[in-house]
Write a structure and sequence with these properties.
- It is built from 14 helices and ten strands.
- By secondary structure, it is of the alpha/beta class.
- The strands form two sheets. The chain has an eight-stranded parallel barrel, surrounded by five helices. A two-stranded antiparallel sheet has the order 1-2.
- Helix 6 links the parallel strand 7 and strand 8.
- Helix 2 crosses helix 11, helix 3 packs parallel to helix 5 and helix 5 runs parallel beside helix 6.
- The longest helix has 16 residues.
- It binds flavin mononucleotide.
- The site of flavin mononucleotide has 21 residues, from strand 4 and helix 9.
- Flavin mononucleotide binds next to strand 4 and helix 9.
């Protein structure tokens, strides 16, 4: 019998005593998953949780949300918004988590997945996985500091050894994590090789807490396959959600978008970004968005280069309108040249 994806994704899921309405969530995406983009996602709906961009644990305790580039949100999104933190010192991570709880976020997510060399040189992100004791201590301190759900996002580690990933996952659970998101790639592999979904199944079997699978889910069929192969409790979408912000609504059965949605969405996001950011920051982030959005089209590089060359938001708007002046051909699958 055909696996009913929408029925599966529409089931609520309990995470540390709180319930999310659906099992498809938006993965943390720096420079992409900002508050303007999340407002766009909220308009479409269909997700169970949203994650913020990664925020430095060092700065969170004193950060002013109204001027911060990353620690920024709309109050309406807080019930389903998790704030992701980055850091290496258990005490500082716990202090950041306390502020996140006080602000009213759904929960706090610990970034043990970022393999960016600048971040890893500071012993943060995936670098923490080299010291499982430190990783465990961070989760434990955060657990003791807050009563909201504590989540962990991690990858396989620095060697392609599934037993090590399972051992890390167990450690996070023992330290008090309420859920994990697992991206089964080694660091520093930046998505060059396919993720090892079978490792998600091993992590799932080893844990009692919910496991979100993540990595290279770009269409409903892949989502179905990941769930069936691994038994994961939910799926976290990254790049495809940036390219097609309506995917959550579409895959959970709440929307059947037509081709006009691409132009309308591109313009809507531009308007939201102009409201939430100053011109320079908005243009910079919109250019980054265009990299992933352009993957939808056979001639996406035309859109991409027009937007990269546009200086102001008005010029970006004109570039977007010019690209859609005649209906663009949709690519059968996202163009991976843009998706790296
Ligand atoms: C541009 C970009 C920014 C990202 N930023 C973060 C981040 O801040 N925190 C994090 O845990 N993962 C981050 N990731 C990783 C994603 O959350 C996700 O694990 C990865 O893209 C694989 O999922 P996908 O195949 O659905 O895109 C980022 C990925 C990309 C491409």
């Amino acid at each position: 019998m055909e696996f009913d994806l929408a029925a599966y994704l529409n089931q609520p899921l309990c995470i540390g005593g709180k319930t999310i309405p659906k099992r498809l969530v938006f993965a943390p995406m720096t420079y992409l998953g900002h508050t303007a983009f999340r407002e766009l996602l909220s308009g479409f709906g269909g997700f169970g949780l949203l994650f913020s961009e990664m925020c430095s644990a060092k700065t969170i305790p004193t950060e002013n949300r109204h001027v911060s580039a990353f620690f920024k949100w709309r109050d309406e999104e807080l019930p389903l918004l998790v704030c992701q933190i980055l850091g290496s010192e258990p005490g500082r991570m716990a202090e950041a988590a306390r502020r996140i709880e006080a602000e009213g976020f759904f929960g706090v997510d610990v970034n043990f997945g970022c393999a960016n060399s600048i971040i890893c040189r500071r012993s943060c992100g995936a670098a923490v996985l080299k010291a499982p004791d430190v990783a465990g201590a961070i989760v434990e301190r955060i657990r003791k500091a807050v009563s909201v759900p504590v989540l962990v996002k991690f990858r396989t580690g620095w060697q392609d050894r599934p037993e090590a990933a399972v051992a890390l996952a167990r450690r996070f659970e023992e330290a008090g994590a309420d859920a994990v998101t697992f991206h089964p790639r080694v660091a520093p592999d930046r998505r060059a090789r396919p993720p090892r979904w079978e490792y998600i199944g091993l992590v799932k079997q080893a844990l009692k807490i919910p496991v979100f699978g993540n990595g290279d889910v770009f269409d409903p069929d892949a989502c179905r396959r990941m769930i069936r192969m691994t038994g994961c409790d939910g799926v976290a979408l990254g790049r495809i959600a940036v390219a097609r912000p309506w995917v959550f609504a579409e895959w959970t059965g709440g929307a059947t978008p037509g081709p006009e949605i691409f132009h309308a969405t591109a313009k809507m996001l531009l308007g939201l970004m102009a409201r939430h950011f100053d011109e320079r920051a908005a243009a910079r982030r919109y250019r980054k968005f265009t990299l992933y959005f352009a993957a939808n089209f056979s001639f996406g590089h035309t859109l991409y280069s027009r937007v990269q060359n546009a200086g102001s938001l008005a010029q970006i708007a004109a570039a977007v309108d010019a690209f859609f002046a005649s209906p663009p051909d949709l690519a059968a699958a996202p163009n991976m040249n843009f998706f790296q």
